[in-house]
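hiii so um. not sure if this is the right channel but i have a protein structure encoded as tokens and i wanna go backwards to a sequence. like what aa goes where. can anyone help
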């Protein structure tokens, strides 16, 4: 399993686990017989991994003793002075450690592997910290960090020889435990915990366990990538910006987990997997819809090198009457299995995929034709999310990078929704211009940006600039016909085209989409923030007024898709190509929509279908897939 998280091509499935009878009170309300039955049931459903949580105040139950005028006197465990043993000096309850040892033994018995969330101080909307630290910020307080390091060091040292443990997780969403006033303070906390793990075990990967990271926020995927081995996403559509706008089984949400995981992996420079995923209960979709959503997410993550999917969580918790379960309806019906232990359709879907995955080869990395450069000042997730979906609809794939990272080699660069006067440093512009002169293609969409040089790159002059709060419809004509897209921007550039060719116009006839030749390369400029607009507009990828936007990406990337073995024409069919060798490719085709999909299926002249590994075979130059389903095919070169 270590290879599954850190080595490209493999894929594992599982869930996040709290005991079925007690939820997060499993350690204090201990029932080894129920845990045994739970793990047996989960193993029988095809699970390979469980993420498990030693609840921090249960395992390190430190109380602060106070003396005169409330002065801190000492820390104790259950009113007893700390002893001389390693566990005692770390403030650890030995009873809890024995119970965790039992879980490890039961996991090994049932063939399950464990990812251990070490500092579990945040869970399901409630803060759980030792009483000694309830009044402090445990992310920045030196004493709290000192005792976290002691706990992590003793815990890892104790269990480092357990064959059931496959990875150490910093803890569950630790960025929710307290405010980090700066990126440096978040880095220091992460470094302290990761360092404690590495000092005691260098044989297992360190998993971030974080969510809600950003390239320029306090908690950054670049910093997590620097300090840990595997990044994580918790891609719940209801909690992620721009996702909870369409039905959960349509393309915006079925691609969400993949787009976000690739965003983290590419910018953080480390593998990433969907560590928590779910629909957050029946108020967001029926059990049948949840199963279809999971099926699509499984295939998509598998096809895009996202390593693993863990559902949240194993069992429903609707029978529990304590906080946080009695606080919010979000937390009660999230399981693969109901509280009476009967499996839901999502459990059966995960089991079916696990059986199928055992028959499939490890996938080589997907072929990616473009590099998408995310820039300063913008909402980088809004730009990244729509760019990823539009590229997938247009029939190609992309990698992300941030503007301050070294420019990756590519023949096609996308700069979506460029914003502000410092969105891209001059040195990056000059590097891109050099790549274009050497034959690359550059696409830029404008979101109230100031950039220079302009005329040299885009073959046009800015006559004036005006506020454009409501956006504009841009009509485009190409060899494939006429269509339109809609893009909003803080301002519109009134352009005069010189060397550039006008491909699209605003409703008043002014130039809106330009193509220019620079050296041996090509530059496209869209006078509007297409990607930011699509992310912020409900149903944008399916509504007739906006659903043709992918055609712009297809036009930009047309010559760069010549190396593809497969061409398709349905925007809801995503195709990844995985070169095994010069003469063999694996193809994964996924219907990201809930309706059946029929697409033209053009195989390049030098390739032929060797066999079908999963799903239906193409017939008569068409591939037909049921809603939210997939096919895996092997091609060989003629």
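sure thing!! here u go:
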């Amino acid at each position: 399993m270590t290879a599954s998280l850190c080595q490209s091509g493999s894929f594992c499935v599982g869930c996040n686990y709290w005991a079925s009878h007690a939820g997060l009170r499993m350690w204090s309300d201990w029932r080894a017989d129920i845990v045994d039955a739970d793990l047996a049931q989960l193993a029988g459903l095809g699970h390979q991994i469980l993420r498990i949580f030693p609840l921090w105040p249960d395992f390190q139950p430190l109380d602060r003793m106070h003396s005169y005028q409330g002065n801190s006197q000492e820390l104790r465990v259950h009113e007893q002075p700390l002893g001389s043993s390693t566990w005692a000096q770390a403030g650890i309850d030995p009873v809890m450690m024995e119970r965790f040892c039992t879980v490890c033994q039961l996991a090994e018995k049932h063939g399950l592997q464990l990812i251990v969330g070490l500092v579990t101080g945040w869970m399901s909307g409630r803060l759980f910290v030792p009483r000694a630290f309830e009044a402090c910020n445990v992310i920045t307080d030196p004493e709290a960090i000192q005792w976290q390091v002691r706990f992590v060091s003793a815990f890892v040292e104790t269990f480092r020889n357990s064959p059931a443990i496959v990875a150490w997780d910093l803890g569950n969403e630790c960025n929710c435990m307290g405010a980090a006033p700066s990126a440096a303070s978040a880095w220091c906390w992460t470094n302290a915990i990761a360092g404690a793990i590495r000092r005691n075990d260098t044989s297992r990967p360190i998993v971030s366990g974080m969510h809600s990271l950003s390239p320029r926020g306090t908690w950054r995927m670049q910093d997590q990538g620097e300090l840990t081995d595997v990044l994580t996403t918790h891609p719940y559509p209801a909690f992620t910006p721009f996702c909870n706008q369409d039905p959960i089984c349509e393309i915006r949400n079925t691609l969400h987990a993949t787009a976000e995981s690739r965003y983290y992996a590419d910018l953080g420079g480390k593998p990433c997997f969907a560590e928590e995923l779910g629909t957050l209960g029946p108020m967001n979709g029926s059990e049948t819809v949840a199963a279809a959503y999971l099926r699509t997410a499984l295939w998509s993550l598998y096809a895009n090198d996202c390593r693993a999917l863990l559902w949240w969580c194993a069992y429903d918790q609707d029978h529990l009457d304590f906080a946080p379960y009695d606080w919010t309806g979000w937390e009660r019906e999230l399981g693969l299995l109901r509280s009476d232990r009967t499996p839901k359709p999502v459990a059966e879907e995960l089991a079916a995929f696990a059986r199928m995955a055992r028959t499939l080869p490890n996938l080589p990395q997907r072929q990616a034709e473009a590099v998408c450069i995310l820039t300063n000042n913008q909402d980088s997730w809004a730009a990244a999310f729509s760019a990823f979906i539009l590229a997938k609809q247009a029939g190609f794939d992309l990698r992300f990078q941030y503007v301050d990272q070294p420019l990756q080699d590519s023949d096609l660069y996308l700069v979506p929704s460029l914003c502000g006067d410092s969105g891209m440093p001059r040195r990056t512009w000059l590097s891109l211009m050099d790549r274009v002169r050497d034959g690359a293609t550059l696409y830029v969409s404008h979101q109230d940006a100031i950039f220079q040089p302009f005329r040299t790159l885009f073959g046009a002059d800015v006559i004036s600039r005006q506020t454009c709060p409501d956006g504009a419809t841009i009509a485009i004509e190409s060899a494939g016909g006429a269509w339109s897209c809609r893009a909003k921007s803080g301002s519109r550039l009134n352009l005069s085209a010189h060397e550039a060719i006008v491909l699209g116009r605003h409703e008043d006839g002014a130039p809106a989409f330009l193509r220019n030749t620079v050296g041996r390369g090509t530059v496209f400029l869209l006078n509007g923030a297409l990607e930011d607009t699509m992310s912020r507009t409900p149903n944008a990828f399916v509504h007739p007024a906006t659903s043709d936007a992918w055609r712009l990406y297809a036009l930009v990337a047309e010559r760069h898709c010549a190396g593809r073995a497969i061409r398709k024409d349905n925007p809801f069919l995503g195709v990844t190509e995985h070169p095994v060798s010069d003469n063999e490719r694996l193809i994964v085709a996924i219907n990201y929509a809930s309706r059946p999909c029929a697409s033209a299926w053009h195989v390049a002249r030098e390739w032929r279908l060797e066999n079908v590994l999963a799903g239906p075979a193409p017939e008569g130059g068409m591939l037909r897939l049921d809603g939210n389903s997939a096919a895996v095919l092997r091609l060989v070169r003629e």
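oh and Residues 20 and 315 are 6 Å apart (CA to CA).
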